[in-house]
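As agreed, record copied across for absentees:
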Amino acid sequence: MKKATLPLLILIFSVASVLSLVPHSTYAASPPQIQVDKIDHIVKPVYGGLVLINDTVEVSATTENATIESFSIGFPRKYKANLRYSMAFDTENSDEQLVVDLDKGLNVSGYYGTTVIFPTEVRDLLYNGQSYTFTVLFVFSDLIQSVKNQIFTLDFPVYPSLAHEVSICNVAVILPENTNYTDSDFPFNATQETESYHLNYTKDNLPKFTRMSTKVSFGLGDKNDFVCLSVREQNREITIDEDGQISLSELFVLESKTAFTVDKIKLQLFNDARNVYAFDGQGKELISNASNMPEVPLSLVANQSKSIELVYKLDRENHLVQQDAQNYVLTLGLSENSQLMPHILTVRIIFPEGGVVQSFPEQKFSIQRDVFQDTLSLSLFNLTWLQDEQWSFTYSYMAFWASFRPTLWVITLVIVGSIVAFAWQRPKAPVLVSVVLVPRKTLSDFVETYEERKKVYSELEQMKRKARKGKISRRRYKVRKTTLENRISALSKRLAELQQKIMSGGAKYADIMRQLEVAETELDNIEADIRRIEVRFKRGEISAQTYRRLLEEDYRRREKATTTIDGLLLRLRE
C-alpha cells in the first residue's frame, strides 16, 4: 500500500510545482472585470527611420460596480531594446496625459508590458458601466533596414499584446509619402490614399497574449524621399538681443543608416523659422533664406557622418511677451515637429547683455551668471518629437543697456585721449618697462605635452576596459599598464617643469595655470562621481530615473570642465 501511495504523492507534488510556476493571470479562476471592445493598431514609419505605433483602446467593465484602476498593453519582448519612448493620453482630449509605468504589466515571459494608470474620473466612468477610450503611443528605432535598390524593410509586431481577448482589432500600416508598397509576408489589403499606401487588416476575437511579427517592404520613387539617419548630436544656441529679436544656430551631426547614397536631407525646424541658412562642416553655404523645413543638399553614403549648421530667426511675437517697461516672458519648445531623435541634445539660451533671468525651469536648466550676461543650458538624451514641452523664462532688461557699450566706448576714448594729450604736453623722460615674456617654444611644448598625456590616459582607460572584458591577457595588461603609467609619470614631471617656467612669465600666465589646475581637479572629481553613481545603480541603491538624472548632471559638468581646459590650451597656443 505504501509503495502505491509514494508515486501518487510524487505526481501530485510535481503538478503543484508546475502550476506554481504559471503566472496567476493566465489561469485566474475569477473572470476579468474589464473587457477590450476594440483596438486600432496603427504602425507608421517616419522620415529618418523611427517607427510610431499608435494603439487606440476602447475598454468597458464586464460587471456592475467594477473597480478598474489600470490597464496593461505591450508587445513581444524582442522589441524591448528598440523602444525609445512611450506615452498615453485620453483619445478625445490629447492634452490630458495618463500616467504610464514602463516595463510593467502582462506578467508573462516573452512580453514587454506598459501599465496605464487610470485617474479617478476614468475609474468612476467604468464603475458606472460606461466605456472609455485612450491611446498609447510607442516610438521605436532600428526597426527599418535599408537594403540595395532603394528598398526598405520594416519589422514590427502585427498586433498589440494584452492579457485580455480583443473583440475587434483593426491593424493599419501607413507607409511614408511618395513610397511604393513592395511586399509583405502578412495578408494586408493594400490601398493607395493620396501620396501614401495604407495596409489594412481586421482581426475578430484576437486571443490574449498574441505574439506575432511581420515584415513589410517598400521602395522609393526618388531616393531622397525617405532616409534612415542617426542624429549623434544636436547643439542649439538661442540668442535674444536687446531688441527682443530671437536668433538660432543649430549644429547637427548626422550619420547615414541608408544603404545607398542620398543627396538631400530634410530637417524640420520651428514652425515660424525664417531666413534659414545652412552650412557644411567647412563653412560652405548650402542653402540661403529657406523655409522652416529645408531640404539641405548634402551627399551621404552608408555609415558616413557629416555635420550641418543651420542659422535662422524666429518671430518675436510668437515667443516673447513684454509685461512692463523692463520685464519679459520668453516661451520656447524643444523639438517642435522634428521626427529625428538626437542621441544628445544640448541647448544654450543667451539673454541680452544686461538682462537678468528671474525664473526658469530649474529642474531642467542650469544657469551661468557672468558680469553682464546670463546664460541657461540644458542637455537631454534620446529626445523624440512627442516629448516637446513649452517652457517659460522670465527676465528683466532695462533699455539703457542698449546704449551701454557705445557709451562705454565713448567714455573710454575720451579718457584715453585725455591721457595721451596730457602725456604729450609733459616733458619726455625715459621710461623703463620690465616685460617678462614666455618663449613661444615653451608654451608649445606645454600644450603638446599636455595633449600627449591626455592621449596616454585615454589609451590606459581603453586597455582597462579591454582587460575587464577579457579581450587581452592579464600578463599583457600588466606589462602595458606599467609602460603607460611610467609614460604618464614622465609627462607629468615634464609638465610641472614647463608650468614653473610659464608661471614665471607674469600674473597672466600664472592665472591660466591656476585655472587649468582647478578645471583638472573638477574633472577628476566628476569622473569619480560618475563611477560612484554607476556602482550605486548596480547595487540597486538608486532608481533608473535617478541614475539617468545624476549622470546627465555630471555629463553637463564634465562638458563644462572639458570646454574650460580646451579654452585655456587654446589661449596658450595663441
